[in-house]
Amino acid sequence: MENVPRSDEVITVELIATCPSCHTYIAFQYLGEQHWPEDVAAAAGIETVVHMWRCTHCHTTMTETELE
């Protein structure tokens, strides 16, 4: 049996930034990591692990580098 946290134990990670899509200064919810093979990441000019965030206003999903 897996040790799965109860729903009241789940921690939500947020980042406050200006959304490039809706231009609102708002919280972004952390969605997780996107993993890419090394050759694909190198060809695309990205890291092999990309952190994904969602704007809580317009729900646009973007990478951490897009928010910097």
What does this structure look like?
- The chain is mainly β and 68 residues long.
- The chain has a single domain, classed as N-terminal domain of TfIIb.
- It has one helix and four strands; from the N terminus they run ββαββ.
- β3 and β4 form a beta hairpin.
- The chain is flat, with a radius of gyration of 15 Å.
Tell me what the CATH architecture is: Single Sheet
The main sheet orders its strands as 1-2-3-4
Radius of gyration: 15 Å
DSSP strand (E) fraction?
35-45%
Count of distinct strands: 4
Oligomer: single chain
The CATH topology corresponds to N-terminal domain of TfIIb
Low-confidence stretches: none
How many discrete domains? Answer: 1
How is the secondary structure organized here?
Layout: E1 14-18, E2 25-35, H1 38-44, E3 49-55, E4 61-63
Antiparallel strand pairs: 1-2, 2-3, 3-4
